Amino acid sequence: MSRSSPHDFDVLVLGGGPAGMVSAITASQHGLSVGLIDEQAEAGGQIWRAPWAASSGKDASPEVRDGHKMRETLARSNVSCLFGRRIWSVTDQYRVEVLGADGVETYQAPHLIVALGAHERVIPFPGWTLPGVMGLAAATIMLKAHGLAPPKDWVLAGVGPLLAAVAAGYARKGHPPKAIIDLSGPSDWLATLPSLASRPGLFKQGVGWVVSILSSRIPIYFRHAIRRAEGQDRIAACVIGPVDQDGHRVAGPELSLDCDALMIGNGLVPGGEVPRLLGANQVYQHELGGWIPDCDRYGRTSLKHLYAIGDGAGIRGGAVACSAGQLAGLAVAHDAGFIDAASFARQSVQPLTENQKLAAFSAAMAHMIRLRPAQVASISPEAVICRCEDVTRQDLVCAAKAGARDVNQLKHFTRCGMGPCQGRMCGDIAAEILAQEHQVSRQAVGYWTARPPLRPISLQSMLGRFEYSDIPIPKPAPL
Amino acid sequence: MSTLHDLIVIGGGINGATTALFAARGGMDVVVVDRGPLCREASGVNAGTLTMQMTRVALIPYALRAHQMWATAREWLGHDVGVVVCDGLSLAFTEQEAELLTFRAGKRREAGAPITLITGQQALQIEPGLSDKALLAGHCRVDGYANAYLTGLAFRTALLDAGVTLMENNPATDIQQTSSGFEVVTNQGPVRAKRVVIAGGVWIEEMMGWLGIDLPIKTLVNQLAVTERIPTAMRTVVGIANGLLSLKQYHHGTVVIGGGWQGVGSRDGGACSLLPERLVGNIRLACHAIPALKNARLARAWTGFEAETRDALPAVGPIPGITNAYVIGSIHSGYTSGPYLAKLLADQILGREPDLPLFPIDRLLTPEPHAQG
Ligand SMILES: Cc1cc2nc3c(=O)[nH]c(=O)nc-3n(C[C@H](O)[C@H](O)[C@H](O)COP(=O)(O)OP(=O)(O)OC[C@H]3O[C@@H](n4cnc5c(N)ncnc54)[C@H](O)[C@@H]3O)c2cc1C
């Protein structure tokens, strides 16, 4: 294991999405040495994901253009880009363990900015684990990075702006979904209009989506949700049914749609594992997606010199992530003594104002994709919640009845969240089920203890080359 | 005025919970107070190895009886804690380790553990997953493992069935001695009892302090790791001569890698964390012993606190000078032996003569005879 000297950089930034990129660039502009680590081969994160082959400039979406621009700025900066590295451990004094092409490496810095984004929220239904059912994040990766076409008959379901973006994206490429199943109704969409006033660019983009969707004549089932997916070895059909605005099932006909693929997105859950692992204070903010590190407006957490920004610190979207990146970059520059208080205050004005301007829109979008308790209450008992360990809703309910009152106890009772995904997929829903079962708040059932590795890594890759005599075996236990 | 219980147990780990269970079954009205849910500290996060080959010699007679209890957990606990009884192997890869193993296995055998020494080749026949690099192995038929994370669920049910009052998520903060016994100050108010058992794991030092007694307890921060589910790679419990490795594969396919490699952290609420290089060291050792593990992915790693007295022997018995007050903790390989020692303590509390002697703490309260050792 190559061990570099302590303090390889003034600041390490984890995650190369908008928040991470901007904070890295900002800190670097103020003279800090910055290391930016990301698992992907290039910066961009989820929204600015680098396309597989350079997409032609003319039909490139605004995100693609913004992403390219920011990647160019990054390339011109002094930021050391440590890409293609999977972060698996973050410990005290901001020591970061990664796995790269050359094996395990360690980086250390006195300041750490965490910008690792969010993960998809899955609201289970019977059959969601069938091959052919996939998350919208995966769908957007296919679309953005690989330009892959979906199977012929595919259905798009869920809630929120990503539905429209994905539908329009694929429609323009000549692969419209067979149907869109939207929990929201037209009135929910209209309700977001006022907040769009501050975002003319987005308004235009939104109109573009609507035009694409309408002109492809895609049937849209508003106020509907997936009841179950059916099929033998893979999905063959999905059954949808009407719901109310909170996601409660309501009376009305069920409809079966034959399909080879179902792409589904029900919003995002902040990926707050690193601040949690380090012991930063957490707060539960339902509208921001769940448990997030308690941060000030600059992204400072309760731990000294630890900053958390972007969707991992609360679902606010790409635009807010950029100004949050600027603010955290400035805060680090200030806290590390590279700029004085006056300059910090002066330079923060613009991003703070920007954030304020964006607030209404980002809140409207976050509200649209918030978890509705009724969505969880409607999950049927036999539905698998934790797919890694095959734990159903019924299993969780039994564990709650057997006395599990917090999520980590629930994990012990059922193995829910013990598999490779470490509860990233099921954690939010399992916690909601537990809270509902005991009729208590989400705060009362707590949050999942974060554990390394942050992503599964093979033992082989951790081993490196070694002789038995090199293993620093501690002295024998007493006899 | 609140009820006066016969017994209050502070700390619902394996030691406190078992003491409470047998005291209640012996007819006492018992209350258990825990800061968190039952068995969520050492007793819920440990490696679950039930082995003689890591047990201290002085504890072998207890561990053998405790092993028997674990093997029949369904009968007395009523719930399956996933106990599997299987062969255990303690390996030596170098001449030096072989010497250590020979000595240690000999001492443990003298104390009653049925350990025999076999060659590496013979060990391979017992455990085909083993590397061919072992020179010598200690082989013991009395070995096995439990699923430690199920301990809380099991004891919760058993204690409630036995009529024990559970006060989970309720930290105790002080103990007052009263004319009728003890009044334990807790977040949910005072709890009164005629007798008290201090069973707070690494926190017994603080609790003993409430009674004015200074019992220094060292905190070990043990690291553990578990792989994803993999095809069967091993069927025995595997360790090494000096005790710094423990490996077993659960029926669902995951392999737990332990051995007591130390992380960093403090029992006083401070964050505790793994040292990545020690995790790597532990994993190297594991893959050296069972090469197929290389193909597994690491799913999770964590730490837990284990208590140790200055002579690394248990603190189990009455608290000197305070009638009706008892302590239980700091039992090396305490998940294995805890239930039996706790049953002995319950016997003593119930006024019965324990089958084997306890480990009274008087020896630990006098100034240390000689330098740290
Ligand atoms: C990582 C690890 C691996 C291990 N592996 C093995 C193994 O493989 N085999 C083996 O035999 N042993 C193993 N051990 C040792 C074994 O786990 C312990 O010896 C045993 O569990 C200790 O039990 P206990 O009840 O004394 O302590 P604990 O289980 O720690 O219980 C103490 C309880 O006291 C409670 N408490 C603390 N403060 C308060 C308060 N103020 N008020 C109320 N309650 C309080 C805590 O919440 C806790 O529930 C391991 C230990 C660790 C940490």
The average pLDDT of chain A is 91
Number of helices of chain B: 11
What does the largest sheet of chain A look like?
Answer: 5 strands, parallel
Catalogue the ligands: flavin-adenine dinucleotide
- What is the CATH superfamily of the largest domain in chain B? FAD/NAD(P)-binding domain
Helical content of chain B (DSSP H or I, runs of 4+): 25-40%
Mean pLDDT of chain B: 96
Q: How many individual β-strands of chain B? A: 16
First and last CA, distance of chain A: 32 Å
Alpha-carbon distance between the termini of chain B?
49 Å
Q: Give helix % range of chain A.
A: 25-40%
Text of the CATH class of the largest domain in chain A: Alpha Beta
Which sheet architecture does the biggest sheet of chain B show?
8 strands, mixed
Task: Assign the CATH class of the largest domain in chain B.
Answer: Alpha Beta
Name the CATH superfamily assignment of the largest domain in chain A.
FAD/NAD(P)-binding domain
Name the beta content range of chain A. 15-25%
List the keywords.
A: 479 residues; alpha/beta; FAD/NAD(P)-binding domain; five-stranded parallel beta sheet; globular; B: alpha/beta; D-Amino Acid Oxidase, Chain A, domain 2; 2 domains; eight-stranded mixed beta sheet; 16 strands; binds flavin-adenine dinucleotide
